[in-house]
Amino acid sequence: MGYIDKKNEFVILKFLDRYSYDGVEDILRELGIEKCDLYILLNSCEYAINFDFKTAIKRIDSLTPNIRNTKEIKRLRNNLIDLLDGEPEAIFSEFIENIKIKLINEEYIDFLGRIYRLKEALFKYIFVSNESGKNKASMIGYMVSKKNILNILRKKYNIYTSNLTFGITQYINKTMSKNRKIQNALKILNNEKMEKLIKLRHDCPVGHGFKGVSRVDVEEIYGDGFDVIKDFIKACEYLDLEIKIDKYDDINKMVIELIGKYKVKEGYEYYE
Mean pLDDT throughout 204-209? Predict the structure, then answer.
């Protein structure tokens, strides 16, 4: 079995601080530490942060029983199933945490892309929940498709637009104008700073343009980038959605504990 010296441990911890699971995997492969629970857990996270929850579950299921049956891993697997099923709190928590990860890694174009998709998803959630009369309506399926929502807006409410968030905003003001919580969420999601970020997204490669995006660009519009995350969490609170954005921090604690199995003891001896 390979082992991890202090130099590699330092690099691994730096990668974990940035949730760069592929970087940790590269180091473990170089050290010959890849057929083990530590590597499998990291690999599952790599798929999960790229929204491939199905493969992430398969990787979790290949853990050895003594790890797979721990309460932490069972909780993680249940969360991945919720994500596959489109459970709103799981979906929005994952989106917001993913935005945090993109911000930490200074991936500002992807950061803006995630913001756009999250805003759109929250509008879809408001619409489908109100139309169906169901709390915590699933975010998976035809009901939340843009085609279906625009069709209902057109036929039932005489709202004619190809812009989803604009159409749902009109719908909210028409059907939920006295719902204070919804209106408060709407103010956050449609505030001027958020709209400017969305425009910046449209001008960059994930939208329709070729403009680059820097930290300065984001801060000139919104101030601290983490304020965007705080605003999304506040909007979710108005929608009675409980958001958790430390899932990957909890996983990192498990990873660090597993790393202990491969650390070099003083004197450069290693143990299993």
Answer: 92
CA–CA separation, 139 and 123 (whole Å): 11
* Number of neighbours of residue 20 by Cβ within 10 angstroms: 18
Residue 98 forms part of a structural domain = no
Find the largest Cα–Cα distance for the chain: 76
Phi, psi (degrees; rounded to nearest 5) at 248:
-75, -25
Predicted confidence at residue 243, as pLDDT, reads 97
Whether 126 and 114 have beta carbons less than 8 Å apart is answered as no
Instruction: Of 109-113, 164-168, 263-267, give the lowest mean pLDDT range.
Output: 263-267
**Domain identity same for 139 and 43:** no
Q: Are residues 70 and 123 in the same domain?
A: no
223 and 148 in one domain? yes
- Give whole-number Cα distances, 192 to 134, 168, 185, 188, in Å: 30, 17, 14, 9
Within 8 A by CB and 6+ apart from 191, the residues are 231
Specify the residue for token string 């719902």.
179
Residue 51 has pLDDT above 60, yes or no: yes
For residues 120 and 232, membership in a common domain is answered with: yes
**65, 70, 61: which is closest to 43 by C-alpha?**
61
Token digits for 60?
């979790």
Report the chain's terminal Cα–Cα distance, integer Å. 8
Same-domain status, 38 and 152:
no
Q: The domain containing residue 79 runs over which residues?
A: 6-85+248-270
For 21, counting Cβ atoms within 10 Å of its Cβ (0-12 exposed, 13-18 middle, 19+ buried), the class is buried
In tens, the pLDDT along 9-33 reads: 999 999 999 999 999 999 999 999 9
Confirm if 23 and 9 have CB atoms less than 8 A apart.
no
Q: Retrieve residue 194's tokens.
A: 């958020």
Residues 119 and 174 in one domain: yes
- 268 has a pLDDT exceeding 70: no
